[in-house]
Amino acid sequence: MLSNVFAGCVALLGVFSPVSAQIRGAAVLYMTTTGIVYALLLRDVDVQTPAYANWVLHVIVPILVIVEWLLAPERTTRAWIWLSFPLAYVAYTLLRGPIVDWYPYPFLDPRRNGSGEVLLSSVFVVMVIAALAYAVSWVGTKLAQRSSVVLSHD
């Protein structure tokens, strides 16, 4: 939900004024992560969201955000900064979970899977997000360079 809210705010702000490439890149990273995590870990899991909303939030919106990035790419730097939110979210979730006796996703719930599996899942997800961060930055930069070369020749 937080990724969708962030992407929605970025899109809304973009209607009124340009949004920095760093902020747009972060939205692309978070929504790509949302789509991948849903496809690999949550597709058949009841996360207490109606099926249509689940499909829109976890499939359609990530695709739209990625397509928008590919159509209007920008050069980004410091993609590693984008990792601060996912890392903080995982840490917050794992610290808060035992206090409130609730975890937002089964793969983060040590009561179901044990602490070792949750740690492995968390490390894996963070590694995937890190790889995606650099992929988003690299693709955006390469496509933006290609666009500027094409535009300068016109």
Order of helices and strands: HHHHH
Please count the helical segments. 5
Strand runs, count = 0
- Uncertain segments are none
Structural class: mainly alpha
Bin the helical content: over 70%
Q: In percent terms, what proportion of residues is strand? A: under 5%
Please describe the biggest sheet, giving its number of strands, its sense, and whether it closes into a barrel.
none
Instruction: Give the overall silhouette.
Output: globular
Overall pLDDT metric:
91
Radius of gyration: 17 Å
Number of domains in the coordinates?
A: 1
Distance between the termini: 42 Å
Blueprint of the fold:
Blueprint lengths: L1 H15 L4 H22 L8 H21 L12 H17 L9 H44 L1
Helix pairs in contact: 1-2, 2-3, 2-5
Briefly, what is this?
It is found in: Endomembrane system. Pfam families: DUF202 (PF02656). The chain has 154 residues and is mainly α.
Please tag this protein with its features:
single chain, mainly alpha, 77% helix, Pr6Pr-like, DUF202 domain-containing protein, DUF202
Describe this structure in words.
This protein has 154 residues and is mainly alpha-helical. The protein has one domain (2-153). Helix content is 77%, strand content 0%. The mean pLDDT is 91. The chain crosses the membrane at residues 52-72, 79-99, 119-139.
